[in-house]
Amino acid sequence: MQERKVDIAIIGAGSAGLSAWHKARQYSDSVVLIEGGEYGTTCARVGCMPSKLLIAAAEAAHQAREAGGFGVRVDNVAIDGRAVMTRLKHERDRFVDGVMASMRRIDGAGRLQGHARFVDSHTLLVGDHTRLEARTIVIATGSRPSWPDAFAGAGDRLVVNDDVFDWDDLPTSVAVFGTGVLGLELGQALDRLGVRVRMFGVGGSIGPFKEEALRRYADRTLNEESYVDPDAKVESIEREGDEVAIRFIERYSGQCLTEHFTYLLAATGRQPNIDSLDLGQAGLALDDKGVPHVNRFTLQCRNADDSPSHVFIAGDASQQLPLLHEAITQGGIAGNNAGRFPDVRVGKRNVALAIIFTDPQMATIGASRTELEERHGGCDAIATGEACFEDQGRAVVIRQNRGLIRLYAEYGSGQFLGAELFGPRIEHMAHLLAWSLEQRMNVSRMLEMPFYHPVIEEGLRSALRDLNTRLKQGPPITERCMEFGPGD
Ligand SMILES: Cc1cc2nc3c(=O)[nH]c(=O)nc-3n(C[C@H](O)[C@H](O)[C@H](O)COP(=O)(O)OP(=O)(O)OC[C@H]3O[C@@H](n4cnc5c(N)ncnc54)[C@H](O)[C@@H]3O)c2cc1C
Ligand SMILES: NC(=O)c1ccc[n+]([C@@H]2O[C@H](COP(=O)([O-])OP(=O)(O)OC[C@H]3O[C@@H](n4cnc5c(N)ncnc54)[C@H](O)[C@@H]3O)[C@@H](O)[C@H]2O)c1
Questions:
Q1: For ligand 2, what atom is nearest to the CA of residue 181?
Q2: Residue 326 CB–ligand 2 contact under 6 Å
Q3: The Pyridine nucleotide-disulphide oxidoreductase dimerisation domain covers which part of the protein (predicted)?
């Protein structure tokens, strides 16, 4: 057993861990980055990037099929599943190579391979080869897919996102369980790529939406193209021959059907990789799920006696917002404070922003209306503005005129506080709104910003004007065309 002593140990060489490493190195040369699995990060290997590559192929197929609506004939759209997966893996590997190249810039002594766990509050056992003592420690161990026991019936036909991106060819059929962000992104993409897909959820939730109006609108819109049952009644899941047999109540007919699928894809959430860290040995205060108590602005954990700990936690492991940009921000703050300890500093956290790459896209910015009502003292404190994309000029032009957006602001101050968006190319509008929220802009000020014509963002202006009217800070919209041009 090797014995080593370092200033700062970072557990996990994912996006949060790498970000922490770069910050920590500004304070000390004695920083070690420990990785127990494969290098390359979840984002590049099995997360953001390969999923977006699959979605991009699906978009190409969809556009080809939809071309007829413009009077452009594209006959016989055929999907070459092997070619789709070959491109996906080729580009995915290039993204992973990029991460590996930056990993290689960390010298050999700065890297340690093996699964880490706490032996005591300052000591980690890495694999069965190294006992590592560290002055401060950053936990950046990410998360992994989780699913209910009932899926065991699918046997080896049960797959998760990691498996999808290793396929050499597209399968014939997939039952997607989970109508959250991952299930909808992958389910819709596979469906558009010619795979027979059914998507099953529980409790009615669709993607990230908290607003019932958006949830219902999205449910209806997605079902125009795919089978999505967010409140599915699934009676049994069994491995049969080479397939998985699923008995369920069909949403529209109410009939009990048994259908066979090549795979069951579990997209039912992720759990933090903290259960095998022996956190009890670290002396940390843990919640009932075993997640350390952490200060959101310093990423510093607390000890069981409520004193501040020398342990920090970042990224998916912290169970805050399991998103890439959050992992990087949190890793930076945690690495900075691990280096400065005990003189920790409050880090800059951005406003919440999530974008889901379905078509239409989904996004949430800031807080939901319910959260805002709680925070600001009841429903009377918050105004909602709305716009629908069915008649919006640019959306009609590109034949993507489905969508509904809702924006929230505070009465009195008129300050913009949050939004839920469902609509075409909403990723850009989501950024405008997140940036406005960062700048603490009020709705009148946002309306003073330039809007080009004809663009999707004119739909945002309509929602802002509606919001301003409801805040009683502006006149109602009377004649849209006369004021702004056709299709505002
Ligand atoms: C399919 C999919 C699509 C996604 N799409 C998006 C998207 O479009 N946009 C977005 O913002 N986010 C997206 N995400 C989320 C995003 O990928 C994650 O939030 C982000 O990658 C988390 O980074 P991390 O550093 O916390 O974890 P990771 O990158 O998973 O790093 C954790 C590392 O810790 C290692 N480790 C774990 N335990 C130990 C241990 N005990 N000892 C040593 N090493 C250990 C692991 O092997 C791993 O390498 C997606 C996720 C998935 C699954
Ligand atoms: N575009 C993006 O940013 C993006 C894309 C994909 C994944 N991600 C990340 O990955 C994480 C995990 O995504 P996810 O969709 O797995 O989690 P999620 O928590 O968003 O959704 C899980 C869904 O599964 C449903 N569910 C739970 N048990 C079920 C069951 N037995 N049967 C059917 N449905 C069930 C839940 O009701 C929920 O809707 C996300 O939190 C997100 O951070 C992000």
A1: 15
A2: no
A3: 355-462
Pocket probe for ligand 2: among 268, 324, 359, the residue whose CB has the most ligand atoms within 8 Å is 268
> Does the C-beta of 317 come closer than 6 Å to ligand 2?
no
Ligand-binding site membership of 142 (annotated): yes
Which ligand lies nearest to the CA atom of residue 180 in the structure? 2
The finding on whether 328 has its CB within 6 A of some atom of ligand 1 is no
pLDDT in tens, 129-142: 999 999 999 999 99
459 marked among binding-site residues: no
339 is in an annotated binding site: no
Residue having the nearest C-alpha atom to atom 31 of ligand 1: 14
Indicate the fold that domain 2-37+114-145+271-340 takes in CATH.
Answer: FAD/NAD(P)-binding domain (3.50.50)
Q: Would you say 386 and 404 are in contact if contact means Cβ atoms under 8 Å apart?
A: yes
179 annotated as ligand-binding: yes
Q: Give 300-357 pLDDT, tens digit per residue.
A: 999 999 999 999 999 999 999 999 999 999 999 999 999 999 999 999 999 999 999 9
Q: What is the pLDDT of residue 107?
A: 87
Name the band, by pLDDT with cuts 50, 70 and 90, for residue 108: confident
**Mean residue pLDDT across the chain:** 96
Task: Using the structure block, give the residue that is written with the tokens 């109006």.
Answer: 213
- Whether pLDDT at 185 is above 80: yes
Is the beta carbon of 178 within 6 A of some atom in ligand 2?
A: yes
Residue 69: CA count within 13 A, CB half-sphere: 11
Angstrom distance (rounded) from CA 339 to CA 387: 47
| Test site for ligand 2: of 202, 265, 318, 328, most ligand atoms within 8 A of the Cβ | 202
Ligand 2 touching residue 248 (CB < 6 A): no
CATH of 353-473, one of 1.10.10.10, 3.90.1700.10, 3.30.70.420, 3.30.390.30: 3.30.390.30
Residue 37 Cβ < 6 Å to ligand 1? yes
Q: Are 157 and 243 contacting, i.e. CB atoms less than 8 angstroms apart?
A: yes
Contact assessment for residue 30 and residue 54, using Cβ atoms and an 8 Å cutoff: no
Regarding the domain with residue range 149-268, which homologous superfamily does it belong to in the CATH classification? FAD/NAD(P)-binding domain (3.50.50.60)
> Which residues are known to be catalytic?
453
Residue type (1 letter), 86: T
Count of residues in the chain: 488
Percentage of the residues of the chain whose pLDDT score is greater than 70:
99
What pLDDT is attached to residue 267? 98
The DSSP annotation for 339-368 comes to: HHTTS--PPPPPPPEEEE-SSSEEEEEE--
In the numeric block, which tokens belong to residue 124? Answer: 């980690």
Cα separation, 472 vs 483, in Å, equals: 19
User: CATH 3.50.50.60 in the chain, residues?
Assistant: 2-37+114-145+271-340, 149-268
* Residue extent(s) of CATH 3.30.390.30 domains in the chain: 353-473
pLDDT at 483 > cutoff 80: no
